[in-house]
Amino acid sequence: MTMTAEQQKTAMRWLSERCGRDGRQMTCAACGRTGGRWDVDDKMVCLPLWSKGRMDITRALLAVVMTCGECGHMLLFGADNMGLV
Ligand SMILES: [Zn+2]
User: Fold this and answer.
1) Rounded to the nearest whole angstrom, what is the distance from the C-alpha of residue 15 to the centroid of ligand 1?
2) pTM above 0.70, yes or no
């Protein structure tokens, strides 16, 4: 699901407040680089939920993906916590 322009603006502001502009305060847990580039996709991902031994198709989690520009390690941030949904 592609974020609207308003959602993208809200997501970038939210991430900047917590991770620094462009993630520059972040250290990648995978490659250990600090101060590298982090990319934020303009699409949210939808994660299905597993309940009682099966996929619950009535519920899902939406998340924003932030990817380390050095190694591709991905971080997910809940869209509801970010105020996007
Ligand atoms: Zn990395």
Assistant:
1) 17
2) yes
Q: How does DSSP assign the chain, residue by residue?
A: -BPPHHHHHHHHHHHHHHH-GGGTT-B-TTT--BS--EEEEEEEEEEEEEETTEEEEEEEEEEEEEEETTT--EEEEETTTTT--
66 Cα: distance to centroid of ligand 1 (angstroms):
11
Cα 22 to ligand 1 centroid, rounded to whole Å: 14
Q: State residue 17 phi and psi, 5-degree precision.
A: -65, -30
CA 54 / ligand 1 centre spacing (Å): 33
Report CA(67)–ligand 1 centroid distance (Å): 8
Q: What is the pLDDT of residues 2-54, one digit of tens each?
A: 999 999 999 999 999 988 876 678 899 999 999 889 999 999 999 999 988 99
